[in-house]
Write a structure and sequence with these properties.
By secondary structure, the chain is α+β, with helices and mostly antiparallel strands. The protein contains 17 helices and 9 strands.
Length: 463
């Protein structure tokens, strides 16, 4: 039941219309309440509220109709602004970054408030009638609420313009993408460190435990894995006395033929599951998996890195030719990867209360993450010395404060980066520039005495 609630909330939150719909429903309710109070308790309100809170029937109609028309115009302008920003995101940055603006809470909240204001004005205009005018006195106060709503909407409109202007600034976008990934890493690390039943070390007899016959589980639909409910899968494995291992990770594309999970019986002496029991277990395990037709930024670390990489790739493309943006982006990639390096997220093992292994989540290795982050940049920037230099700088950032095994991986990866660079385009000063950065990396990774001069330079010397 809890998983169904999580899946429902996850699916709803990913819909663009969710937040605007909440505001629209709220506005409808508020409008009905205001009209009800106005019909039933007008005399009480006249004694409590100042006279300027009330208007005549004709003036109320004018105010509410003006507000409704103005807010509709605001919605149109906001929608046009969103389309312009999305076009710029797609052409200048990356199509994958479009959802960062479109599904941003500020964007959706502003649209929701405009829609709410429009709905309130229209519904209130519909419900008030000239019978409320009384003996020529001003007794309608719903128009005053409409004025307050209009002022709030105007303030949010100014805020939205500011938000849209900031969203197209590439440095702020890169910072936002970086913080998005860091937030995921921090959340996973904090949860793992606070739970004694989640560890990074596999049991000594893991291979022996997995020597038995396993059962494969295939998904019922194709798409990208958005969520794996690991804690719920651990409880499920404990309940049925089995070991579950995820064969695919969040962000992987799967089809009906893909093996997403494997299960083993924990007690080898236990009777084999019958087909009905096995089908029940498979359905419950698949119930803890969310698959959709697009990748989600909520839990997908690799997807966040991919978006940063694509922004850098667009920046160094001949059509845009903005290497400084690429350098800034690569530096942020280095910082994100350095954070991932010390978080130790590669392999996670989940145990029950009896200290028995229940669930295995073997995530992408740091080397693969390093390669997937930089291999395209290395290929498309193989003739740009600033790109090569910034990648080496990023590797230095990763190596700083990282464990020894990460430093070794970073040092060996630098050979791959520099080996693919076109050395024929380098002048003497370029070689000195790169050699100096290689020296820094060698010093940081503990290979100062073994470093190679990749680019031979006459009278080359580092102080």
């Amino acid at each position: 039941m809890e998983v169904l609630k999580f899946k429902f909330l996850h699916n709803i939150e990913n819909k663009i219309y969710f937040i605007p719909s909440i505001y629209a429903i709220s506005a409808t309710i508020v409008s009905i309440i205001v009209i009800f109070i106005e019909y039933q308790y007008t005399n009480i309100l006249l004694n409590i509220l100042p006279s300027y809170f009330f208007t005549s029937y004709d003036l109320s109609k004018t105010i509410l109709s003006t507000i409704a028309g103005s807010l509709f115009a605001m919605i149109t302008v906001s929608f046009s602004t969103i389309m312009v920003v999305l076009t710029m995101y797609s052409s200048q940055f990356s199509p994958r970054t479009m959802q960062d603006f479109l599904k941003n809470k500020v964007t959706l909240k502003v649209l929701g408030i405009f829609i709410a204001g429009f709905i309130y004005s229209i519904l209130t205009l519909l419900f008030i009638d000239d019978s409320m005018q009384g003996s020529g006195e001003s007794i309608i106060f719903s128009a005053m609420i409409g004025v307050i709503v209009a002022i709030v909407c105007l303030g949010y409109f100014v805020y939205f313009i500011h938000h849209a202007a900031n969203s197209v600034q590439v440095n702020l976008l890169i910072e936002s993408l970086k913080e998005e990934v860091i937030e995921i890493v921090d959340k996973i690390e904090a949860r793992n460190n606070s739970n004694d039943q989640i560890r990074n070390e596999a049991p000594d007899n893991l291979n022996k435990m997995l020597e038995r016959d396993s059962c494969e589980i295939h998904p019922k639909q194709s798409g990208y894995i958005q969520v794996i409910y690991d804690i719920e899968l651990t409880k499920l494995a404990d309940e049925y006395d089995i070991i579950v291992r995820a064969e695919k990770m969040i962000g992987d594309y799967v089809t009906e033929n893909t093996v997403v999970f494997k299960i083993w019986q924990l007690n080898k002496d236990a009777d084999q599951f019958n087909e009905e029991k096995l089908a029940e277990i498979k359905n419950k395990i698949l119930g803890n998996l969310v698959i959709n037709n697009e990748r989600s930024k909520k839990n997908d670390i690799e997807f966040g890195l991919l978006k940063l990489t694509e922004v850098a790739l667009r920046a160094i493309s001949p059509g845009i030719n903005d290497p400084n943006t690429a350098i800034f982006c690569i530096n942020q990639l280095g910082w994100v990867l350095s954070r991932i390096a010390v978080a130790n997220l590669e392999n996670t093992y989940y145990y029950n209360d009896k200290d028995e292994l229940c669930f295995i989540l073997e995530d992408i290795s740091f080397w693969d993450l390093l390669y997937k982050t930089f291999y395209q940049l290395s290929h498309y920037g193989n003739q740009d010395v600033s790109v090569a230099g910034s990648i080496i700088d990023a590797l230095v950032i990763i190596a700083e404060g990282s464990p020894k095994d990460i430093k070794e991986q970073v040092w060996h990866f630098s050979h791959y980066i520099l080996g693919g660079f076109d050395k024929n385009v380098l002048e003497q000063e370029d070689k000195k520039f790169l050699n100096h950065k290689i020296y820094r990396l060698a010093k940081e990774t503990g290979h100062k005495e073994h470093r190679e001069k990749y680019f031979q330079v006459e009278n080359f010397k580092i102080n």
